[in-house]
Write a structure and sequence with these properties.
The protein is of the alpha+beta class. It has 20 helices and 13 strands.
């Protein structure tokens, strides 16, 4: 079970990932569906009713597709998670999906995942581990077999790709059921604990539902038609809303657990010492030269590749130049001046990070490296001359900040219209005025961090509003320049406020205070992720997922 995969889906957010559903409502709906079937008596009546309910998408909402630890889910509910997993995947990999062998215009059931793609994505192939299946309804022939039950003899012949026995449909169905199991188990734990859902969750739910209705209206269709086109037959506003609230509550509980985790200095030092290259940064200078001969163009405009002699000469020239630059550095000359003399590309990096396997990275992070070391390095035809200055871990503090974003209103003019610049300037000025008014409104009230968070939740145009406008562990240079400069002003104190204008609009600022230094936040994130994955997987370690083909056939 990949809890980290669900975590990625949860963080993806947006219209594709919303999910929810109260378990009691699911059980009641299954009971109503059973009663409905129980009323059907005559054969001719069955035909009439099935025709009617199919047209109204009732069958996918009545037919059980999966049972997770005794909790039944109908085909529409599973389809919601299935399509969400698919949409999240496509959004995550974007144009890369075709390279992975996924054709978004072809049925997923007809597309098998290649062995290479499975290896790249870390996909568990059929038969690699045991998993609970539905003895009554699971089709293990491939369509609904999921990530288990391999065909050991599906090696390709000649140049044909090796068969994995898994289709993209299998993969997304597995993800959907795994996600559902995680959410169900986590929410049961939240309820048992008496977890109080944050106020921002309702606001996020309301905004998502408003966006859904706006998207349907913009498309000229009803909400039901829009959902059917997005998620498939059976999805209606009620099911969508239930799944949305459920996943939001799950996300809030999971985030609350992560936020509760803290680690001692010794624990963080242990993580750091286990992999110093990951956390250390380096300060260095580098001059780069290309040892590749240029192509030329003949009289007809055709590209002419360099000859072997020309290529060899270009490489030798670059090597000679690198040697001369290194000698100059070792004689006390400045690398920047030498780079200019020999037409090399020069740069200085004060916060370089480790790149495993690279020629320059391995040299810079060699444990024997000392200030002033220099070297000429070769990587293929590329030549580098480096001067090492320092290796260190980033002790600079991170900060916590709240803000309220006021975006400028949309203007009536386009860039080609006369007066466009004047209109934009006025809209930005109006946004700034609004931000100043919000700050004054806050100052006239309780003027506390909590009251600022409450105002952010109702007024901010930024997604952080659901958490009271809060950004935590912000590091120097992470945010846009004006925002960053205000946060990291040397005189900044907890409780400071102000208005900052950026390319995104006007921000009402509230400085919460300093947090861990940057290397500690990185080490803490490693421990937090490990603990979170173990925590989440603990909920579903012995989870039973049963599949019913009678419902699964409506999915995908």
């Amino acid at each position: 079970m990949s809890a980290s995969r669900e975590k990625q889906n949860r963080q993806a957010g947006g219209q594709a990932s919303p999910k929810t559903a109260r378990e009691a409502q699911q059980r009641q709906q299954e009971k109503r569906n059973s009663l409905l079937y129980g009323l059907i008596a005559a054969a001719f009546l069955i035909v009439v009713v099935i025709s009617a309910v199919w047209r109204s998408d009732v069958i996918p909402r009545m037919t059980t597709a999966a049972t997770i630890d005794g909790e039944k889910y109908n085909a529409a509910e599973v389809a919601y998670f299935y399509q969400s997993s698919y949409n999240n995947f496509v959004n995550q990999y974007s144009y890369f999906v075709s390279y992975l062998g996924l054709d978004t215009n072809t049925s997923l059931k007809s597309q098998e995942i290649s062995a290479d793609t499975a290896a790249m994505l870390g996909i568990t192939l059929p038969g690699s581990e045991d998993e609970n299946t539905d003895s009554a309804g699971t089709d293990t022939s491939g369509e609904d077999a999921g990530t288990n039950g391999t065909d050991a003899g599906t090696e390709g012949e000649d140049t044909a790709p090796a068969s994995t026995g898994m289709t993209w449909h299998d993969y997304f169905l597995d993800q959907a059921l795994e996600n559902m199991a995680v959410i169900q188990a986590t929410l049961k734990a939240a309820d048992a604990e008496g977890f109080q859902t944050p106020a921002g969750i309702q606001a996020q739910y309301d905004d998502n539902m408003t966006s859904l209705k706006a998207a349907a209206a913009a498309s000229g269709v009803s909400v039901s038609q829009y959902l059917k086109g997005t998620f498939g037959a059976g999805i209606n506003e009620k099911i969508y809303g239930e799944q949305l609230m459920r996943v939001l509550r799950y996300g809030a509980y999971a985030q609350a657990y992560q936020d509760s985790l803290s680690y001692s200095d010794s624990q963080l030092e242990e993580v750091y010492n286990s992999d110093r290259n990951t956390y250390d940064q380096v300060s260095y200078e580098i001059a780069s030269l290309s040892g590749t001969a240029d192509t030329t163009t003949d009289a007809d405009g055709n590209t002419v590749e360099p000859t072997e002699e020309e290529s060899a000469a270009a490489l030798a020239a670059a090597q000679d130049a690198a040697k001369a630059i290194l000698e100059g550095v070792q004689n006390g000359e400045q690398l920047e001046d030498l780079a200019e003399e020999y037409n090399a590309t020069y740069s200085r990096n004060e916060n370089g990070t480790y790149s495993a396997g690279s020629v320059t990275g391995e040299w810079l992070y060699d444990s024997s490296r000392t200030a002033g070391d220099s070297a000429a390095l070769e990587d293929g035809t590329s030549q580098y001359v480096l001067v090492f200055h320092d290796r260190f871990r980033d002790e600079s503090p991170t900060i916590d900040i709240r803000h309220i974003l006021v975006r400028p209103a949309t203007g009536a003019l386009t860039e080609e219209d006369e007066g466009y610049d004047e209109e934009q300037a006025q809209l930005k000025a109006d946004a700034h005025t609004k931000a100043e008014e919000l700050l004054a409104q806050w100052q006239s009230g309780e003027a506390t961090e909590d009251s600022f968070a409450a105002l952010a939740m109702t007024e901010s145009a930024d997604g952080s509003k659901y958490d009271g406008g809060l950004y935590t562990e912000v590091y120097q240079g992470q945010m846009v320049a004006e925002f960053n400069d205000w946060c990291f002003d040397a005189d900044r104190q907890p409780g400071d406020t102000g208005v900052v204008d950026t390319q995104y609009g006007s921000h009402v600022m509230y400085f919460s205070g300093d947090n861990l230094c940057r290397w500690q936040t990185s080490a803490s994130a490693v421990l937090r992720n490990e603990d979170y994955v173990a925590w989440e997987e603990g909920f579903i370690e012995n989870t039973s997922i049963e599949r019913q083909e009678s419902g699964l056939k409506y999915i995908g």
